[in-house]
Amino acid sequence: MHYVTLFFCGMLLCNCIPHLVCGLEGRPFPTPFAKPRGIGFSPPLVNFVWGFVNLAVALVLLARHPFTLEPAADLVSMLAGVLVIGLYLAHHFGAVQAKRNA
User: Fold this and answer.
1) pLDDT tens, residue by residue, 50-76
2) Quick one: which of 3, 1, 43 has its CA closest to 23?
3) Which of 1, 26, 31, 68 is most buried, taking the most CB atoms under 10 A from its CB?
4) What are residue 41's phi and psi, to 5 degrees?
5) 89 φ, ψ (degrees, to nearest 5)
6) Bridge partners, 29 (sequence order)
7) Which H or E run contains 101?
8) Three-class SS of residue 50?
9) Which helix (H) or strand (E) element contains residue 30?
10) Structure pTM?
């Protein structure tokens, strides 16, 4: 269960970045609350709050499941979460942007 939790921590940490950045820059960006979900834009405030919630949940999980940066299963689990969600989101939002620009 520890490795699964770290995997989801990595996903949450990776997902918080674009939402926090767009919110702080005042730019709209898709969120799960947009219409259509994950495709339409949400306002910057919604993005910042969504990014903050992702970050807060990840930090709470990390506090309960600490890990080290040594090359071990803990770090691999977290990085796998970052990689999986990063690849998925890059593909998804790349397709969303391609449709908008077509």
Assistant:
1) 999 999 999 999 999 887 777 788 888
2) 43
3) 31
4) -90, 145
5) -65, -40
6) 42
7) helix 73-101
8) helix
9) strand 29-30
10) 0.81
